[in-house]
Amino acid sequence: MSKLFRFLLLTAFAAVFLSCDSDTKLIYPPDDVVNRITDFYFFNDGKSFIYLSSNMNRKYDFGEMVLMEIDEEGDFVFKNSLLIPSIAGKMAVSSDEKDIFVTTRDKHGVIKAKIAGKSGSYRLQYEEGTKGDYPDILKTKKEPYALVLNEDESKLLVTHILNGELSVVDVADWKVIKTSKLKYGVTEILYDKNSGYFLASHRSSGNISLIEAKETLEDFVVAVKELPIDLPTKGFDVRSLKQSGDGELFYAVFQNSYNENTYDYSYDEDTAPQIVTFKIEDKTLKIVKTLTVRGNLGEMAVLPYSSEVADNGDEEDDDGEAADDRDAAADEDETSDDSDVAEDEEESADDSDAVEEEEESKTTQRIGDLIFVSAPNDEKVFVIDSARNSIRDTISYRDDKKDCKPYQLYAKSTGNTTGYLFVSCFQNDRAYLYSIDLMSEEVIKKIGVLE
To answer: Is 354 helix (H, G, I), strand (E, B) or coil?
Structure first.
């Protein structure tokens, strides 16, 4: 074969290759796509929210952050969206609601974007100078997933679900300044303002990582201590970790035995999916109480509440029944014999003060949490009252016309007894938004569906 012939042949192959490559077009998701939602954020204005489409199924070439608003009629209104690298993990939003950070699992890094405008006119936008379909990726270790800002929000702590590393990012300089080793498969990380520690949960062991991360004059120091959880039954695989509303306790959700190859959950008489309530004292984990539930468990969300209840601990007050009892008691007092009222008329002023003091002594402030835990295979969400340590209610999807295997959850408090709950049907590309009102007859009310 002559050199000329080989040259012409190679040139033809190159032309064909380049032609095919130029014809390959990227698949962009629609502006408000719902595709494997992994995270939510609800703004403090009570009507704007962001959801994160991860593109875990690789249906498109990108993931997406979508900004929505609830209008006066209660309908979802699309505001705008940003493309992000596929596959997205989780996101974190700064306390001033100006910056948003998202992990990208397959691109092995983190991106940041801006939240511009104000309530009613929020916009998601890339950093100035960004070129291409999404901002430049800050490279980290493999498969970054859960992330959290430190107290002054100068550092972003990023965990890695593959090998369990912890990356510390300097937000101002936008660079990784430290990498430390944690246990394999970090599922969640949170910051405890009371102790100054970070806590991380794992799907590979019944441990909680206690992380001290602070800046010194010479360096940024990270120290890790593994805290074993002494469960009443055998188990591992902590899928979710949250802090109580008063900051004193923590909740962990255990799935128990999970086969990542078959996606099956196996149980025996010595294992039980459960919610564990614990506290940290002197760098030691102490279990306060446990609650065993049925079925496989996914993620968890916590909605704090506080309300006046009867001093005798009447648990019916949350349902409004105790309040009805007080009204009935008041009605009974009003039916007292008129002659008795007339005889006591002169002392009514003093007696009214005494009655008010007595009524005040009969009530107290109860503080607790509603703990929402997803059970994908059972197609339900458990609603647990931390004060009672019992299942208060369930949200079931078995009667819905469309399938829903709930997994990712997010809760936002809007008052002492009110808030919002997002439920992501991850595999079904659907998400539900509920309003929560403990003082209402209908405590959990569906607002709308994203699909």
So the answer is: helix
Contact status, residue 353 vs residue 364, Cβ threshold 8 Å: no
The DSSP letter of residue 73 is: T
Say yes or no: 120 and 101 in one domain.
yes
pLDDT tens per residue across span 94-132: 999 999 999 999 999 999 999 999 887 899 999 776 767
Token output for 275: 């919610």
Q: State residue 226 phi and psi, 5-degree precision.
A: -90, 125
The per-residue pLDDT for range 412-440, each reduced to its tens digit, is 999 999 999 999 999 999 999 999 999 99
Phi then psi dihedrals of residue 172, to 5 deg: -65, -45
Largest CA distance in the chain: 127
| Counted domains in the chain | 2
- Considering only CA atoms, which of 386, 368, 227 is closest in space to residue 291? 386
192 and 123 in one domain?
Answer: yes
Give yes or no: residues 401 and 282 share one domain: no
Q: Decide: 256 and 267 in contact? Cβ < 8 Å.
A: yes
Which helix (H) or strand (E) segment holds residue 19: the answer is helix 3-23
Do 406 and 298 touch, CB atoms closer than 8 A? yes
Q: Which residue would you say has higher pLDDT here, 76 or 332?
A: 76
Over 80: is that where the pLDDT of 256 sits?
no
Give the structural domain span for 157: 28-298
State the DSSP string of 146-208: EEEE-TTSSEEEEEETTT-EEEEEETTTTEEEEEEE--SSEEEEEE-TTT--EEEEESSSSEE
Claim to verify: residue 206 and residue 312 sit in the same structural domain: no
Which tops the pLDDT comparison, 352 or 10?
Answer: 10
Residue 188 · residue 199 · CB < 8 Å: no
